[in-house]
Each structure stands twice: as structure tokens, then as C-alpha cells.
Structure prediction request, 442 residues.
Amino acid sequence: MNFPNIEEVATTDVAQISRERTLCEAIDLMYRSEHRQIIVTEKNRFYGLGIYDVLRLSNSHMNKQTPMYEIALTPVPTLQKGKSILEALEYIRQDFEYLVVVDETGALYGIVSQTDILSSIDPDTMMETFRLSSFLQIKKRTRWVDQNMSTEEIFRFMEKHNHDATMIVEAKKPIGIITAKDMLLLLKQHRDLSLPVREYMTTPVITLPVDCTLKEALAFMQDKHFKRIVAVDDEGNLVGSITQKELIAIAYTRWVKMIEAYQSELREINARLEQKSRKYEKFAQTDSLTGLYNRMKFLELFVAEYNVMMHRTNDLSLLLIDIDHFKTVNDRYGHNVGDEVIVKVADILQTSLRSVDIVCRWGGEEFVALLPATTVAEAYETAQKLREKIEKSTFQIDMPLSVSIGLTRIKEGDELRSIIERADKALYMAKDAGRNCVRKYL
Prediction:
């Protein structure tokens, strides 16, 4: 089995959209195509837009009509579809989850993931990829001698060091070879070993270029019925020799090590993906500014607490909290200071409430707190304590800061929409009463 071309493993079912289009259109495409990731195109450049990017942009309250070219997107590397998947290996060590595959014109053809790349590695490809030069640096068992050296001296050396062949070299070029098999035949025939080795060497020497592939080398040995290869450089100078057995053993050792390396790399990638998954899961559940739960997660937790309330007949109360005169804070001190105020209020809410209470940033300067197993009277007392604590806190502004709080009780058959409407009415009552107070609407 060989490494396939990129196009053979690429996924061609890709949702794509021009960068001239709006964020709203991109989100719509993502929903319609049921893809968690779409490709944003701009001439021959490509960018990734994923579901978590959409969540991040939504949390930042970006206008959905914003053109995609105004949004910072992550570029995705490209590879031509006719290339071997081996050429994609360099990207595995980088933080890319997938690559864009393009056709001859540079147009989008598909995408290929790191898993697609890793799963395509096999021994046959190793044979086609590695070259003799890599192995000759590892294994060099052949002695190089002058043609006038006595055959007996060479025989003793080969016997002592267990060498299976000796190269006869002149001006760096191989002119002959004598093997252990040749020596055995000379001994059997009782030939005179005191004679120079030139009398018995095999000549000429059939060689291979040192940059030929392992697959070519093995095919050559099979065709010639050779047990070893003699490799030369471009000038015909001897580089080294290696036996078929050594070549295959080293090749497969290299392959095993390569597979182990890729498996380790894959484990690292999986660990990184799991870490990212946890990170994105948290990101998808929380408000990016305050770290509180967002509306989506709050809805999920509300359903769970509502079911507990119904099962155990517990009380369940909800507070809607709004920072008073927040527009004035932004207008007078700027949005950065406004963000700092929101973050500090969120921190007060989170640290002041119980661990079982659920706090959410509802939007802008509004927060929602769900209080399980809490009566209206208890919720009212909690709300007053929150209001007083915020009023007494110090902020980086020279104007008093307070909150207004609307309180409601959750009843059987309630939907979150109607609950929020009641809490909102209570909040407006608090605003009409002069702000910095708590009001109920049950």
C-alpha cells in the first residue's frame, strides 16, 4: 500500500462562502449545511469559521450584518490535490486541525484533516521515500582496500571482524569486490591467497546512485539476484555498500520508529483536541467578559432546577439585576471602564451568592440569578444584601453605583419567557421607584 494523493483522502463535502458575505449569511449556511466548520474564501485565500467562532462573535454582540472581511479569521494552509499526502506531514507538528485542498486553478477542492494524514502512513511509502544515503550513514561494514593487497591479508581481516565483503578502490572509485562467499570458494579450490586481490576480485562493480530510493534499491537487488548494493555519488566515487538483509532490517526499524513517533504525535494531538474541546465547551457556556454562565447554559440549568423543584416541591426564585445609570458610566468614562464595572458587579454576585445559586449575564448590564430552594421572602432578603453590597463597593468612577433588582417566584407550568417577563416588570417597578431598590412581581 502506498501513500495516497491528497485528493484520495480529502473530504469534498465542504460548505464555503465568500468573504464578501455577511456574518449572518455565514451562520445561515452553517445551519443549513449542518456543518460545524465552514470555509470562507477570498480569491485564492481560505479561512476557517467554526461554530465556536460564531459563539465567540455572538457573545461579543457583533452585528450579524458585518461583512466577513471585517472579521479576523484564521487562515488555513493549502495543498494541491495531486500532491502526495507525505507532503502534508510537515503540518502535523503545527496547530492546524485541517488543511484546504485546492485544484490546479487554486479553487477549493476539499479539506483533509490531521487524522486523514496520519492514517495513511505505511511501510510501502517508507520504501519510496527513504534513500540509500540515509542508510549508508548508519551501516558501513565493507572495508575499502587497494588492489595490490594480498588476498590472504584481506581474508584474515574479514574473518576477524566478521565482514562479508571488501571493496577494492582506486582513486575513490570501486573497481572490484570480493565477498565472503568468494573467499570460501577460493579456499575450497586451494587457490593461492598470497596473490594480490586483483587476481580474484569481481569486476566491474555494478553500482547504484546513492540518491536512489529504497524501493528502487530492493527492486535492483531482486532483479540482479544481488545480496548487496554498492552506492556511488554523482562523480562515481564510492559512498558505501549495504546488504539486502541490512537494508530491509533498517528500513523496517525506521518505519516502526516513524509509526511510534506518529502515534505519539497523534496522542499529543488528541490530548490537545480534548483540551481544546474542554476549553471550547467552557467558552460556549460562559460569557467571555465576566466568566458567568451565558443565556444558553442558563436555559439548560434552569430546566434541570425546574425539574428538581417539581419533583421535590421546592421553592424556586429568580432575580433580574440591572446596573443603574450604566449608560452614563459608558458615556462619561468609556466602554473599557464600563466593562470593568460589569466585571466587578459580576464578581460580587458570584462571591456573595451560594454555590447552588446560578448566576448568568443576561445581556449588557443585566444579570439573572436563579435561587433553588428559596422562598420569595428569602430571595427578597438575598436581593437586598446584594444591592447593599454593590452600593457600598468601590468602583473606578467618581459617581455612586447601584443596582435595581426585580424578583419573581417560579410556579408550576411556568416557562422561562414568562418568568423573565414577570421579573422584568418587577425591575421596571424598581426603576420607577427611584432605582437602587428591590421590587417583586409574583
Notes: Residues 100 and 286 are 31 Å apart (CA to CA). The first strand starts at residue 16 and ends at 18. The two ends are 72 Å apart (CA to CA).
